[in-house]
Amino acid sequence: MMIYQLGDLKPQINSTCFIAKSAEIIGDVILEEGVSIWFNAVLRGDIATIHIGKNSNVQDNSTIHIETDIPCIVGENVTVGHNVVLHSCTIEDNALIGMGSTILNNARIGKNCLVGANSLVTHSLPYQEGCLIMGAPAKIIRKLTDEEIQANIKNAQHYVSNAKRFNQTLIPLT
């Protein structure tokens, strides 16, 4: 892993986090308890804050960046799937962002939402909690069932357990 201080901007990383060796954490980045940052993910907090909440995960090849003075806030128990781009947006608790999705400046994903794979979410998406969001541009499709919301939370919990396993047993062979 490469963790960089940029001028006065220094990452704040809880000791319980898992950060893959190939991940890059730069500048004003806050990682709360139980966060996992997976292989080749980049979190570049060079011009505003990136804050990842407790027990959230940022999966392989995802990029999180910000616009000047517009932070990127990820709540608790959030799963950010593979190849996702988050840019100066807010993702509330218990959400799941599907693989290959892009969430743009000032977009806000409500609590307990699921963003379908390869979606493009702009700031003009109306705010709602507990819904399925899909498309490019993304639209609200329907309300999620209680079972689907619980699946979001279980997914985040799985990554907390898997991160502990990686912290304890991952051994580089070269």
From TrEMBL:
The organism's place on the tree of life at top rank: Bacteria
SUPFAM superfamilies named in the record: Trimeric LpxA-like enzymes (SSF51161)
InterPro entries, alphabetized: Hexapep, LbH_gamma_CA-like, Transf_Hexapept/Carb_Anhydrase, Trimer_LpxA-like_sf
A Pfam family hit: Hexapep
Gene3D superfamilies xrefs: Hexapeptide repeat proteins
PANTHER family referenced in this protein's UniProt entry, alphabetically: DYNACTIN SUBUNIT P25, GAMMA CARBONIC ANHYDRASE-LIKE 1, MITOCHONDRIAL-RELATED
Stated name of the protein: Gamma carbonic anhydrase family protein
Lineage: Bacteria, Pseudomonadati, Pseudomonadota, Gammaproteobacteria, Orbales
